[in-house]
Amino acid sequence: MKITVENKKGLNKDVKVFIDKKTMSSYMDEKYEEIKDKVNIKGFRPGKVPKEVLKRQFGKAVFGEVLDKVLKDTSTKALEQNKIKPAGQPKLDLKTYGEDKDLEYVISVTELPKIEIKSIDGIKFDDYTVKIDAKETDNRIKDIAKNQPNFKDASSETKAKKGDLVVFDYNATVDNKTFKGGEGKNTQLTLGKDLFLKGFDDQLIGVKKGDQKTVEAVLPENFPEKEFVNKKAKFKCSILNVKNPEEIKIDDQFAKNLGAKDLNDLKSLIGKQINDEYKNSLDRLSKNQILKEIEKFKVSEIPENLIEEEVKILGQGMSEEDLKKSKKNFEEIAKKRIKVGLILNEFGEQNQVKVTEKELQAEVQKQIRMMPGQEKMVMDFYQKNPSALSSLRGTVYEEKIIKMIKEKAKANKKEISKDEAEKILKQSQNQPHDNIERTDHKKLSKKKAVEKKTIFKKTKPKSTKAKSSTKKVSKK
Fold it and tell me: HSE-up of 290 (CA within 13 Å, CB side)?
């Protein structure tokens, strides 16, 4: 194989690859040897079919498979040997090809620019620690206790009031007709919350244990039995019990009910939870400081094809007229984003940052925990959408890079109070954003994939001598 790099000026390069017909024939012979034991041709025993017979019957298909494999293997090797990292998908132009012929083709590629990342060690950023006052922890625990329902049985003569829990059985009818879903056993309602049917629990105010009460309420729009939607139903209720709310005692048992070892352990866990809530937001500020510092780095040239792709992303959903007006601004934003993404990716490669399957699955579980009650839906989404999983991998990849940069950079450590944290976060919300925070995670992960494996679609000329028009190559 002979490789020649042409048009060496700038990021655009043409890589010419030549493979003589003798080598191509050897690839064909290997393929014929591979298939001769698998084909059944009348008059020949398996494995004894002459190559000429195979060539007549399967020649075109075999050549197509061989050509695909040779293009894939040799194009990747040609780029790796010349240390060319493609920015996006290369284009391929077949010049000469065919059975018993030399293979000659040209890879037109835009190269990623050379990135200098030595000055990352000099980046400065604020690293915040939030000191949580004991009162903040106690107040949070009290709020949790308020939201933990706790009731005790009232006396048999006690009448239900707002805030009490009423336990009852019921049978419902519409126009004296029973219906599916119109019966309930041991139903519990906290009066005043209006969580059953609008105005239902207000009608239970004043009932006591053993009472019979008829309640009228309109069935809602989303009622399963469509013929009864918006119709007034009568609920004959048998009151089984009335319970009064009881203040929860905040002690070791309360803490154990919440999964802590004791009350001190609960306070420690809640304090950490409050700290994490602020820490996560403050860490995003620190990350933005780092990204803005990285944006100041010099990059010789930003590939035009990446800018065009980013502008398309920014302009999704916009009319052609609005896109035209915003194009210049979008191009500036695109350049910033791409520059930051390229620098982060280069840092990740030089430091051999990788995302393990275990780390990716941990992030999926994190996303699932953020959607309580919809766990299966979230899991199915990632299982059925490889692109979403790839994007999530990019997120983890970037976070690992940022974490490593923080370890190398110069942290200005600050211990602040909760009030100071809130003030800092509020100020950050009021400041204008320049849109550089979004680094395209998909793009970062795609670049790594492109460097490792470049697959091309063939562009066939009208004849082996004619020059073919070049088509953009898409990844298979």
Answer: 29
pTM value is 0.60
List the one residue out of 59, 24, 112 whose CA is nearest residue 444.
112
149-245 architecture in CATH? Answer: Roll (3.10)
Domain 118-135+261-439 indexed as CATH 1.10.3120.10: yes
Looking at the domain that runs over 2-111+452-472, which CATH code has it been given? 3.30.70.1050
pLDDT at 296 over 70: yes
Pairing mode of beta strands 12-19, 177-190: unpaired
Higher pLDDT, 320 or 472: 320
Report the SS3 class of residue 151.
Answer: strand
Inter-CA distances, 267 with 139, 258, 264, 279, 327, Å: 10, 11, 5, 18, 53
Would you list the DSSP string of 218-259? Answer: EPPTT-SSGGGTT-EEEEEEEEEEEEEE-PPP-SHHHHHHTT
Q: What is the dihedral of CA 434, 439, 442, 445, to 10 degrees?
A: 160
pLDDT in tens, 234-256: 999 999 999 999 888 899 998 99
On average, the pLDDT of the chain sits at: 84
Alpha-carbon gap, residue 17 to 19, rounded angstroms:
7
CA-angle at 409, arms to 403 and 415, nearest 5°: 80
Q: State mean pLDDT over 350-357.
A: 92
Q: Which of 81, 63, 62 is nearest to 73 (CA)?
A: 81
